[in-house]
Amino acid sequence: MNSIEVFVRPAQDFPELNLTEARTLSRMYGGDAGRISNGELVFEAPLDKAQRLLSRMCGSREAGLLLGEYAKQDIPRAVRLAAGIIGSMRYKVVVERGQRDLITEIVHNMGGIVDIRSPDAILRVTKSGGSYTLKLILGTARVVLSKLQPKKWVYFHPGALQPFFCGLMCNLAACPDGGLLLDPFCGVGSTLIAASKLGLNAVGWDISKKQAYGCKRNIASLRLGGALGVLRADAANPPLKSGIIDAAVFDPPYGKVSSLFGRSFEVLLAEVAEGLWRILKPGGFACFFTPLGRGLDVFVSRGFKLTYTYTIRIHSGLTRMLVVVTKVA
Ligand SMILES: C[S@@+](CC[C@H](N)C(=O)[O-])C[C@H]1O[C@@H](n2cnc3c(N)ncnc32)[C@H](O)[C@@H]1O
Asked: Which residues form the Ribosomal RNA large subunit methyltransferase K/L-like methyltransferase domain (predicted)?
């Protein structure tokens, strides 16, 4: 078996964004566009990449592998498949009322470590008619990133984004494994921290000495691994070689909570578009916020192709648009 079905149950807060994230990840890891079935996105992905794909999922609280439908006597075959995927992870088995005898049989065939309180994976068995459907629910990045609360970091600024949302943006920007992601307005470091948790290399900068230093302190105190770099620099003047960045994720300042350091928003964004065009690899993506889509046209007129927009109403005075653009090769 070279491929497996993956299911993603979108979370309540941003279901459409979650589906777009799942489809982007599927494309990146060699899967198909999928179909909606019972409120879930189901798609086919290469068996050896499906687990990594799910570990990057930031929008969904519940996602996993569809092991298939089995007659009762064939359940051990599904369990062997699950055992190969689970390896040394901790897991628990969930069955329907009246089916508890299945648990002993499954655990017997599965071996490994059963952990009811904090499992890494859940094997869920549901019965319909004479057959049993087995699903393996695996931990997604959403769970890990939601535990990271910027307010509790050693350095905080009210402009900080929630890390799970930054992770979602890293995925919408399709940063590949081993690729280099940039946040040119890194603030307290939410994007860099999320990227590191997703296993990506990331570099960020901020024009404010206080923010750049605070971001470094956050990264150090969270003991993050991987290649992470923080500089003090102007987003309009990227201190990097041409064509080196795979993806960019950012939330620019609007001049309210975060200062624009004397520029107008449109002028700053035009300069950022110019700088990103130089350092982004051809085909690379940028995912960013703009208030009500302001400044979007400067990216388009610089040559970027608009691939996705999503509107989020923050409060009556602020509607932000999440934008994805690509540097057309
Ligand atoms: C909205 S905040 C970014 C928040 C960040 N995503 C976080 O989670 O902390 C915008 C940041 O841009 C920085 N900034 C403003 N003008 C800049 C410029 N020209 N170059 C780089 N950073 C700049 C501000 O100091 C601020 O930290």
From this structure: 154-318
Residue 316: burial class (beta carbons within 10 Å; 0-12, 13-18, 19+): exposed
Residue located nearest, by CA, to atom 7 of ligand 1: 160
Domains of the chain: residue spans and CATH: 3-141 (3.30.2130.30), 142-327 (3.40.50.150)
Going by pLDDT thresholds of 50, 70 and 90, the confidence category of residue 329 is confident
Q: What is the pLDDT averaged over residues 65-70?
A: 95
Q: What angle do CA 164, 244, 183 make, to 5 degrees?
A: 30
Kindly state if the Cβ of 31 falls inside 6 Å of ligand 1: no
**Ligand 1 nearest-atom number relative to CA 184:** 21
pLDDT for 229-272, tens place per residue?
Answer: 999 999 999 999 999 999 999 999 988 788 888 899 999 999 99
Determine if the pTM surpasses 0.85.
yes
Tell me which of 206, 213, 249 to substitute to probe ligand 1's pocket, judged by most ligand atoms within 8 Å of the beta carbon.
Answer: 206
| Residues constituting the chain | 329
The verdict on the CB of residue 159 being under 6 Å from ligand 1 is: yes
Separation between Cα atoms, residue 237 and residue 69, nearest integer Å: 56
End-to-end CA distance of the chain: 35
Cα dist. 137→55, 109, 134, 226 in Å? Answer: 11, 18, 10, 27
